[in-house]
Design a protein that fits this description.
Keywords: Cell membrane, Membrane, Transmembrane, Transmembrane helix. By secondary structure, the protein is an alpha/beta fold. The chain has 16 helices and seven strands. Strand 6 and strand 7 form a beta hairpin.
Amino acid sequence: MATARQVLGTWPVWVVPSVLVTLLSFVLALIYSGGIADPQGSVRNLPIALVDQDTGPAGGQFVDGIATAPDPHHRVSWKLLTPAAAKDRFDSGRVYGAIVVPPGFTASLTAIVAPPGGTAPARQPYVTLLTNPGAGSLASSLASTAEQQALRAGSRRLGAQLTARLAATGARPTTTQHMLLADPVTSVTAPGHPIGARTGLGLTAFYYSLLVVLTGFIGANIVSSGVDGALGYAPSELGPLRRMRRTVPISRTQTLVVKMVMSVALSLITSSVVLLATAAIVRLDLPHLFQLWVFTTCASAVVGLGAQAVVAIFGSLGQIVNMLFFVALAIPSAGATIPLQAVPGFYRGLALFEPLRQITGGVRAIMYFDARADAGLARAWLLLAIGLVISLLLGFGVAHFYDRRGLHRIHPDDLTRPS
């Protein structure tokens, strides 16, 4: 009987594990550190609305000045919207924030430079800065930062204009006027689309979606190992107990049918358990429970089918491929903890097809945005359907090809062994 020392002294034992572990560690380090390194520096086209409710000219000048201000890196995509259009985009998660100029803005500015004895401003001119918590805490924070920067620049522009206007009359500003004219516009902050208290500051959709992906992905691995053990293609081990069943002659295609059917069936159970735990025990704010259950079940099933297809194509190496595709590459490109507008372009490219991104969009729409199709739910269903078709075509296509080429999993001796 061989000893551990003899095995460890044989270099072929080290080659495959060493290469795979080293490469995997290197790739994972690049993926995760690259996605979170500099969200502020990576921001591109952050969607923020500009809403002018003022009846005078100052409001329009203020928002136009913000929209046309130099932005060589295209960090913000300003949207000039009506109040109704802005509300619609907040309710569908398509803007992360807004700067709203209220009625009477021009009058309050004009009152600052009114001659002595004139009408004093009822309050300092202000604008409302709206955030969208449903887009995620970091997305709201980035939008708030961009709004504050734009507000300061816009306020100083207006202050300079008012100062020039006052100087043209030959009047000297009072101490109060001098202080106000340096930075005349203040702000109040409010949510543009409030969400529930038990929503993790807009992060429960991401963690719930990650749970859906993990149950589908891990469930597929468990099913695959269990079926291989039951069919005699892998040992079944429980602690010190080991059993190797007689190999059942079955094609790769038929084996894949078994695994995929079991993955779909188990997704009904796992989705129900996940929803029960999060809704009844943890008590997350989960509106549209039935629709969330249907979406969760289908998403988990598609992930499971995709994972089974990958294992059918790559064999045991498929588990590493699945981990990279469904988890490692998926998390930084999900657009949840860090919005896609704040990650490097590589991750925005991954987000076009990564399952976690699509599932997060659908779950977020159901949880925070009243299950609106244009909040990401329609795209999520479409991409899940495409993923389902690709998984079936690739999985069965490659399995059938292996069968036709005679690349059977069963050992030739088992084909001639008497039953």
